[in-house]
Amino acid sequence: MSSNKGPGFFSAIGSKARDVLTKDYNADHKLTISSSSNTGVDLSSTLLKSRGLSSGNVAALFKYKDKTEVHVKVDTESSVLTTFTISDILPSAKAIASIRVPDYNSGKLELQYLHDHVAFTTAFGFNRSPTIDFSATIGTPGIAFGAETSFSTAIGKLTKYNAGVCLKMPTSNASVILADKGDSMKVMYLHQLEKLNGGAVVGEISRRFSTNENTLTVGCSYVVDTQTVVKAKLNNHGNLGAVLQHELTDKSFLTISGAFETKALENSPKFGFSLLLKP
Where does it localize (predicted)? Predict the structure, then answer.
């Protein structure tokens, strides 16, 4: 199932601009060591310190004929998450099933369908009162309209409904997302610039109608060289963030992030660190 055709899934609306403004901005400390084999088995081990709490996990990914994947993750809380992915279970369709042991009510099944002019996903849990998620998108790779909703069978009501539109051009894209049951709206624009060596500038305006709160965020990414990318963002509330990512060796990355409150300099800045090693 190719992700390059059709309008894409609803979650992809505004994703490029969102990545520039949110991806890798965190105050966690993370170390991941992973390895791959020619037999289709990938192994990884992760240590994480977040908000003063430490955790870890060991994961294995098994691939079979490029169509079937089994992902098993064991964490320090003695839970085991197993995910089965089958691509092309039907033409242009994918099935994803997951369960976390010992919480047997966590079982979930998701179906994805991606075609030339339509894409949709549906997911539901394996319990007595599951929540049913559904999203659909229509259009082309250049323009797409979509919506998503969640229905709780426990209370018999819709608990989420969002809608969005995305316009993509060769060097830019714009999107509008109406979320939180119509209470909030985000307008995002991304433009790639040759002066940034393939980087981009992004602007986002978000508004929450119930509180009349507006937030303007601007950001950019700059490709220093083939191994180094720098990102920064600033909003009208004075929150400044920056990310430096450097490829140490092939597929091994060092990521450092920082966050500052320019209107409250007495507050301590926050720093994050991530190291991914793949021998």
Answer: Membrane
